[in-house]
Specification:
This protein has an eight-stranded parallel β-barrel. It contains 16 helices and 22 strands. The chain is globular and about 80 Å long. The protein is α/β, with parallel strands linked by helices. Helix 9 runs antiparallel to helix 10 and helix 13 runs parallel beside helix 15. 28% of the residues lie in helices and 18% in strands. Strand 16 and strand 17 form a beta hairpin. The protein binds 1-deoxynojirimycin. The site of 1-deoxynojirimycin has 9 residues, from loops.
Length: 544
Amino acid sequence: MSDESLWYLDAVFYELNVRAFFDHNTDGHGDLRGLTQKLDYLKDLGVDAIWLLPIYPSPLLDDGYDIADYYSIHPDYGDLEDFKTFLNAAHQRGMRVITDLVLNHTSDQHRWFQSARNGRGDPYHDYYVWSDDDQKYAQARVIFLDSEQSNWTWDESAQRYYWHRFYSSQPDLNFDNPDVRDEMFKVAKFWLGMGVDGFRADAVPYLFEREGTNCENLPATHAYLKELRHFIDLYYPGRILLCEANQWPKDVRKYFGEGDEFHMGFHFPLMPRIYMAIRKGDVSPLIWVMDQTPPIPDNTQWSTFLRNHDELTLEMVSEEERQWMWEQYAPDPRMRLNLGIRRRLAPLLDNDRRKIELAYSLLFTLPGSPVIYYGDEIGMGDNIWLDDRSGVRTPMQWSNDNNAGFSAAPFESLYSPLIDEGEFSFSKVNVSQQEQDPNSLLNWIRKLLCIRKQNPAFGQGNLQILPCENMSILAFLRESKQQTLLILHNLSPETQRFTLDLTQFQGLNLVGLLQVENSVLISTPEYHFELPSRNYQWLNLIDE
Ligand code: NOJ
């Protein structure tokens, strides 16, 4: 396999919703032409791959994860020609694009479901999962706890219950039907043929159902996904599959197969532990989760993130930890949703630059390819008074101009209210202002990403956590063939002094990557450090 086809091992991803990014045709909704205009911004930030949230026709009852037609573009965003133009423009700038592939379910407005509702005998009836009662698969949990009571909903027209793991407006497809399995290959082929660089595959643990199980991560699911991977390797090498499985590392591990299933998988359990560790000033949650993280095949990579378009999920923590996270980070019940917290990064971290930097520094230095959620690079706020997850999906804040520079439409036509009050108001938090300020969060992230790219050990190096008696200090090595990096984080609000055993590196020099400073010889086995409050160091070990 060529190195080029392993591009995702050290890529920086940027997740965005076209609707929220930039409105070209001034109808109040962001669109593909608008996004195309903003590609240079993403390139300058250091983005290697853009992940687009669903862009297909949809009634938008789950913001596009309820797809009504897999082969077209939502009219608010433009059309297929606009998509091709956008894709070419991204490729010309050396950026890749992955789209959301929603295999598990469609919208109830999809023509397959509309037809299926005619009942038994309809050619599309078996595209979905039906039952005459609502008792089957009783061990499967309800995911959207705040809005759904059951995974079964009665359909008057079909006179049967249909199965859905998410909203009742999102009926699950029946993957036991070979026609469904083929349909989804066709969908993948269509977009790969157009030139997309891969897919973020939504909700993959739930494709198949089997009585007596919790209907997650089933062998049949893995077998199907392996077929999909095989198809991609055969016809579209270099394109990737990114797995959305909100599961424990040992279960996500199976989605990498022997390097023959997914290329990438989100590391869900790491994310809440970054917040726990920062709030406690204690590295134990991070050490614990890295310990739980099994090795993965060489041609695969974790996908790591601080926030995304959903609630900050607390599914991968204990009941006690969840309560603690809610108390600490979601004191107002409006901040909670299902098993999570619907807030953005900057408000979660008290808009405290040191905590935000610390979180990003952990994200950029621990193993995995980082994903930045749009707006979090400037520290955008949220609006907990909006429904569902809309509060973390407000328009991108480009400037202090009308409508935050997002749209020239009258503000009543915007798809969502802007954040226009308080410390996160677009008058205070916007791209334009941060571009002019050399010390802004935006410029700081640009710098870190640039340093990350110059140092291959971040993408492909092993992780070795160094023993340290001071529980506020996370000290680890990232080692690749080319280099060894020593990374230090002080999670506590106080300056910390600590000692590391660097016997193995005696005679080498420590050189800071983040600022120009003199190199320091490691002359003793026990090396003493001092790190100010919530500070971090990225150090290169060199022989000179
Ligand atoms: C996971 C997506 O991230 C979320 O936004 C969506 O609601 C569910 N899958 C259902 O598609």
